[in-house]
Amino acid sequence: MAEGDDLFPGFEPLWIEGPADRWFGRAGGPRDAPPLLLLHGFPQNHAMWHRLAPALAETHRVIALDLKGYGWSAAPDSRGGENAYAKRRLGAEIVAVMERLGHVRFALAGHDRGARVGYRLALDEPGRIERLAILDIVPTDVQWTRIEAKPGANPHWPFQARPAPEPEEAIRRDPDGYFEGLLRGWSAGRDLAAFDARALTLYRQAWNVPERIHAMCEDYRAGGADGPDRAADRDDLAAGRTLAMPVLVLASESYLDHDKPETALAAWHRTFAPQAQGARIASGHFMAEEAPEPTLRALQSFLAA
C-alpha cells in the first residue's frame, strides 16, 4: 500500500499530465456519477479531505487534487507568482486536467487556497462549474482590504508575498516549526489534535522540500497586494461580474468569522455571490478535519439540492 492510500479507501491514485505540468490526485466513487472536484488549502494537500471524501463518493465521482506546488503535484519554478501560480492560470490548467479525466462540467468544493482557485475558475469559465462550495475564505481583494485596514492581521500574507528569497530562507530554517505553528494557531484547540497522524506525515513531507516552500511563497505572491489575483478580482468587481452557479459559503466560527467587521457570507453577498447560501461551522480554520460531520452535512445538502 502506498503512503496515504489508507486515508482514501476505495480511491485510486492518479497522475495526470496537464498542459504544462504533472498533477497528482485521487479518484473514487462511481465512474458515471456526477463529478466533484476537491481542492485543498495551505499548507496542506489532498489529504485534508480524507474524512469527507469517502462519504461524498457515495453519490459523486470525487477527484481530490494536489494543487501545483503542494503535495505530489509539480512545483515549477516561478518569479513573482505570475509564471505558474496566478489563480487564473491554475484554474485554466485544472479545466484541462478535468477534461483529460473526462469531465467537462463538474461541481467544485475548495478550502482556503483551493477556494481561491475555485472562485477564480468559476468567474472565468462559469459554464464549467455546476455548483461551487467555498470553505473559509473571503475574496482576495476583501482580504487585502482587511489587512490594510488592520496592519498585523494575517501576517503570513504579507510575509510570504515578500520578494524571494527572504521568506523562503526564513521558513527553511525550521519548516515544521513554521507550518505546524500555523496549523496550531488557526485551529480552534490551538493544537494538532484534530489532524490525523498519517495526514500530518504527508503535509510534513511536502513542506520540507525547498522547491515546495518556494512554490507556496509564489502562491502568496500571486495573491499579494499588487499581484495578479487581486487585480483579477478588482477587474471583475468593476465590471459587476458575479458567480452564475449556486454557491455555498462555509465559514468557521473561531477563525474566519471571529471578530471580523463583516461575516464571510456578507462579504460574498456584496461582491461576487449575491445569492449565495451560507452556514457557520463550529471549528477553527480546518473545518474538514476539525468538524467533519457538520461540514459533510452542509456539503451533502448543497450538492443534493
TrEMBL record:
GO terms for molecular function: hydrolase activity. It comes from the Bacteria. The keyword Protease does not apply. The keyword Hydrolase applies. Keywords: Hydrolase. Residues 34-290 form the AB hydrolase-1 domain. This is Alpha/beta hydrolase.
